[in-house]
Amino acid sequence: MTEHKSDRILIIDDDDEIRYSLNRVLSSRGYEVEEASSGEAGIEAAKASIFQVIFLDNRMEGMSGLETLQHLRTAASESMVILMTAFGTTQTAIEAMKFGAFDYIIKPFDLKKVLDLTEKALQSFADLQKSRSGTAPLVNSEDYQEGIVGSSEPMQVVFKAIGQVATSNVTVMVTGESGTGKELVARCIHQHSLRSSKPFMAVNCAAIPDNLIESELFGHEKGSFTGATQQRIGKFELCDGGSLFLDEIGDMALPTQTKILRALQEGEIQRVGGEKTIKVDVRLIAATNRDLEKMVEEKSFREDLYYRLNVMRIRIPSLRDRLSDVPSLVDFMLQRLQKDRRMTVKRVSDEALRVMMQYSWPGNVRELENTIQRCVVIAQGDTVLKKDLPQEILEAVPDALTESSGKEGLKSPLQKEEVREELIGNQPQLSTLGLDALWDEVYQRMREGTDRQLLQAAEMEITRRVLKETGGNQVKASTLLGITRATLRKRIDSYGLADA
Length: 500
Ligand SMILES: Nc1ncnc2c1ncn2[C@@H]1O[C@H](COP(=O)(O)OP(=O)(O)OP(=O)(O)O)[C@@H](O)[C@H]1O
What we know:
- By secondary structure, the chain is of the alpha/beta class.
- The protein has four domains: about 10-130, Response regulator (Rossmann fold), CATH 3.40.50.2300; about 155-315, P-loop containing nucleotide triphosphate hydrolases (Rossmann fold); about 320-400, Helicase, Ruva Protein, domain 3, CATH 1.10.8.60; about 415-500, Arc Repressor Mutant, subunit A, CATH 1.10.10.
- It contains 21 helices and 16 strands.
- It has helices at about 15-30, 40-50, 65-75, 90-100, 110-130, 155-165, 180-190, 210-220, 235-240, 255-265, 290-295, 305-310, 325-340, 350-355, 365-380, 390-395, 415-425, 435-445, 455-470, 475-480, 485-495; strands spanning about 10, 30-35, 55, 80-85, 105, 170-175, 200-205, 220, 230-235, 245, 270, 280, 285-290, 310-315, 345-350, 385.
- Helix 6 (about 155-165) crosses helix 7 (about 180-190), helix 18 runs antiparallel to helix 19 (about 455-470) and helix 19 crosses helix 20 (about 475-480).
- The longest helix is centred in the N-terminal third of the chain and has 20 residues, at about 110-130.
- It is flat and about 85 Å long.
- Bound molecules: adenosine-5'-triphosphate.
- The site of adenosine-5'-triphosphate has 18 residues, from helix 7, helix 13 and helix 15.
């Protein structure tokens, strides 16, 4: 066992058990460990003596971990702080890195990870001592609503990188397949930067014809080319002090690349047809899903611009490489849709989610977003079922079309309730129509393994009875069924109930 006599570690956590167990593990490796049971006590301890590494709990009574972290950045600016969080939220990851944490670790701990991370932190501490060059900037904490979802490991790496680059001015290259969230990440970098009060603008270089892109970026003087009837201010000028996101930068023609390079190197531009040199201070965030290295080799992308843009690179993983993020993305999208418009769909059935987690999502998060939007329109009741998923997804996932799905959502009492809700809309008035008994009967038969068309048969029967009961009044019938009139009309058409 290696001895670490001179290495001192502080554990700040209000949970006695966590402190105890961490202390045991670390002490057994020869580290000198001290404990503090609150943020305040931790700050005092850190002021009193030097700790190379500080384990800091994020959620504590009184002063929170992030608050404590900010104080520690002045009280113990050299210590490597490892934030301990209950689960990896985007916010915590970004904020922790932004406030200068060394890293963070998600509870429950993997002990090997704790020890590896401690070693890494100690190494960084030693390196930093050798070349001390100032501390991370202090920025006031704000409760950001990131809008970026992902608790998978690859996304945590992305969030950390955002936190690391945000407050500097370096150019960032964001790479990833189409629809992975490159623009979202660029926005997030801007929001967390010191430029956040200034504009963020996005230009999709692939969507603008070559002859117009320069005017879009740098502006033009009146009369500089046919059609230039007015002077125009370009994005670089409009964005002065802020961040400019250049999407699909690989699609930019070589002459424009040269001008971008000048804007980056000299901080100045010229409007098309203009003589005057205009000073601009713009942070560039570029994105591409093309192989820029290959383009540099083929001389279709300037090598000097490539190096200038590629100071920091953030690679966003494809959705198929982080399928564990699908449930939280779906949940996030449903919540957002619910906020945006009145919508009855609240969840996706387990079986539908299982299919979604086996699909390869070639269009990444954008495709998932479109799928959810489409499903909520199609779904009846408050749950998106497997049958509501687009055919191409069902066909692409092995076994998704087999009839095991006949009992979709019927395996536990809770799911039974969901089916009941879907069928009779949780409308108390319906019980007066004797539909409870009908529903029980259907449920029983489905449990016995009769195929899923029964669900539709029951739906048809319920709709037919309600229409009969209301004398064909669609307003009353849809209210009773707890569905919209459009859904009712769809049912009437598909079940041929017009004369019911
Ligand atoms: N992690 C995420 N959490 C929530 N929404 C996301 C996430 N990633 C992407 N999205 C959503 O998916 C859509 C596509 O994202 P975005 O436009 O940022 O992708 P992109 O990589 O820039 O695409 P393209 O390369 O086609 O321009 C957007 O509506 C965005 O809000």
